[in-house]
């Protein structure tokens, strides 16, 4: 009479426990969301990967015009352009091992060469990620200053002395010949008069 009841209760309790543990398992490991599932993005690791891609995507979406970033060269608002990437180093100025002055001097222009010339360590390059805020529209970046003065100096300075030198090359021998001829004539005249 009472055999079935405890058995039923036992089965009922076991089923309830199973259902509970299933729910617990589901809450820990939620089923994959097909909209987020991809071969490279496991749902278990979603928080880690998504935070990394979010940082990249969020920053990657921002594209600055050169003129805009070149204005940020003050102590309270200092941006750097290095290898096409834009860094807001305002908060880093005081902590920069190379000093704040070099960073301020490198702002308002393409600082790639200055940065590379120092030979920054891998640690320094990793540190940069913290200050990364976006990319620059490469079409808006003016060509490096070096090109202009070089072509200017070559065409301007070399042309003028070259021209003068060529004229003098002709004139000086002519003058010497003329003088020699003149003195010869004078000498002959003096001889005939004597
Ligand atoms: C976000 C950008 C930058 C970061 C995170 C950064 C970071 C660092 C770090 C960590 C160092 C210590 C040495 C090393 O680990 O390499 C350093 C040194 C230095 N940095 Fe930077 N830097 C940045 C940009 C620049 C720029 C644009 C210049 C311009 C010239 C510069 C000039 C220097 C100099 C002169 C030193 C001292 C080197 C020495 O004493 O040996 N840095 N920087």
From TrEMBL:
It comes from the Eukaryota. Pfam families: Cyt-b5. One of its GO terms (cellular component) is membrane. It is found in: Membrane. Keywords: Heme, Iron, Membrane, Metal-binding, Transmembrane, Transmembrane helix. The chain crosses the membrane at residues 163-186. PANTHER family: CYTOCHROME B5, CYTOCHROME B5 ISOFORM E. This is Cytochrome b5 heme-binding domain-containing protein. It comes from Gossypium tomentosum. The lineage of its organism: Eukaryota, Viridiplantae, Streptophyta, Embryophyta, Tracheophyta.
């Amino acid at each position: 009479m009472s055999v079935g009841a405890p058995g039923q209760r036992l089965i009922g309790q076991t089923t309830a426990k199973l259902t509970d543990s299933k729910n617990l398992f589901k809450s820990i490991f939620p089923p994959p969301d097909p909209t987020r599932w991809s071969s490279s993005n496991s749902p278990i690791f979603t928080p880690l990967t998504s935070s990394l891609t979010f940082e990249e995507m969020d920053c990657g979406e921002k594209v600055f015009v050169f003129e805009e970033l070149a204005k940020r060269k003050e102590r309270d608002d200092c941006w750097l352009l290095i290898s096409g990437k834009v860094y807001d180093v305002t908060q880093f100025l005081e902590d920069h091992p190379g000093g704040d002055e070099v960073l301020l001097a490198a702002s308002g222009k393409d600082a790639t060469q200055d940065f590379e010339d120092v030979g920054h360590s891998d640690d320094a390059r990793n540190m940069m990620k913290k200050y990364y805020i976006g990319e620059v529209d490469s079409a808006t970046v003016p060509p490096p200053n070096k090109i202009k003065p070089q072509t200017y100096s070559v065409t301007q300075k070399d042309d003028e002395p070259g021209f003068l030198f060529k004229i003098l090359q002709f004139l000086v021998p002519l003058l010497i010949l003329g003088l020699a001829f003149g003195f010869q004539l004078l000498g002959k005249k003096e001889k005939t008069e004597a």
